[in-house]
Amino acid sequence: MAGTVMIGGSAGTGALAYAGAPWSVVAVVAVVGIVVPGTVLLMLGMFPTESEHKRDIWMAFVQYWNERGERKRKDREDRRRRRAQWKQKRKDRQNRWPRRL
């Protein structure tokens, strides 16, 4: 790829603003320029390349996500059950009283 140039977030934002790009494009480039390097640094800090406990970190991460998924499934089922009970109570209450025409 001859001619491909990589510039940083602040340089890209400044160049776009100077060129008269729409504010939404400048805002997206600014946010991406902050979020991507921050995420990379966070991952490098959380998962060091030279760590004898790297497997333990990954196993804890996987276990957390599995437990989180189970909690979400259980909460979803509880919400559906409560919603069905509420609908049934509402239907019973409406059928109990005579309706006016």
Q: Return Rg in Å.
A: 27 Å
**Number of separate helices:** 3
- How many β-strand runs? 0
- Are there runs of 5+ residues with pLDDT below 50, and where? none
Overview of the structural elements:
The chain is 77% helix and 0% strand. The model has no long low-confidence stretch (mean pLDDT 81). Helix 1 (9-19) packs antiparallel against helix 2 (23-46). It has 101 residues and is mostly helical. The protein is flat, with a radius of gyration of 27 Å.
Task: Compile the SSE list and pairings.
Layout: H1 9-19, H2 23-46, H3 54-96
Q: Keyphrases for this structure?
A:
about 75% helix, flat, mainly alpha, 3 helices, about 100 residues
Compose a concise summary of this entry.
The protein contains three helices and no strands.
